[in-house]
Amino acid sequence: MNKKALSRIATVAAAGALMAGCAAPKQPDPRDPWEGFNRGVYKFNDTVDRAVFKPVAQAYTYVTPEPVRSCVHNIFSNVGDLWSGTNSFLQGRGHDFVNTLGRFLFNTTMGVGGCFDVASANGARKIPNDFGTTLGVWGLGQGPYLVLPFFGSSSVRDGVGLVGDWQGRMHGYMGVSAIDNVPLRNSLWGLEVVDTRASLLNATDTVDRVALDPYSFVRDAYLQRRAAMVNGLRVDDESNLPKYEDDEDEGAAKAKGAPAPAANPATK
Fold it and tell me: At what angle do helices 54-63 and 182-199 cross, to 10 degrees?
């Protein structure tokens, strides 16, 4: 796909996003006062993703053997632990800092530069962290939910945190940003983006399949996950995700004229 085609897609999608952003919902979620605008940006991101990023990620998974993909993903994840550990330190979470630093050292040495996640295999779970979480631990409220072009789900606080993440990696010599060779650095940045999108293929397919309103599903999952990170809770537990299966079953039952199944009290 050439630059002209990409520019045309982006222009059309952006126009649609602006038009959609003018329509405010009748009953907005208090956490999402800019829902009309956010839905427009979400649609723009989804259009670009389906036209560019998702096909590239699918092609990458098709032509690249699974062991190679796993190695690439683990290396990027291992380098990312340096910034995660730094934020744990800034948050005063010494236990998480020590564990994350231990993960990095263990995977770097025994895991052949991070190619193998031997730390997780031995019970040392990954602790996701970033500067947006650090701001939350320091007491800064998340502010309204915000969907950013290309970056996706965020909030006012996490948007500021993205700037901190970028500066921390640039000036802290962590990750791809520390490489002086520009062509190599840009190639690795591209590979990191493709790897990240490829790791989310199953998740986005699940959202498309089970969510009646993908926008609301992604928003609720994001906000619950971010709250768990600020509060120091596990974020890899499915119980932290919103449950929409009952809503889907109810809608299907109404469409068929049958009574809806009883709701599971555990999901209330």
Answer: 90
Question: Full-prediction pTM beyond 0.70?
Answer: yes
Question: For a pLDDT cut of 70, what percent of the chain falls above it?
Answer: 76
Q: Which two tokens stand for residue 255?
A: 């469409």
pLDDT at 234: 61
- Here the contacts of 102-105 (C-beta below 8 Å, separation 24 or greater) are 103/78, 104/78
Q: 48 near 9, Cβ under 8 Å?
A: yes
Q: At what angle do helices 214-230 and 201-210 cross, to 10 degrees?
A: 130
pLDDT tens readout for residues 50-72: 999 999 999 999 999 999 999 99
- Coil, strand or helix at 23: coil
Q: 63: which residues sit within 8 A by CB, 6+ positions away?
A: none
Q: One-letter amino acid identity for 266?
A: A
Give the pair of three-digit tokens for residue 148.
């950013």
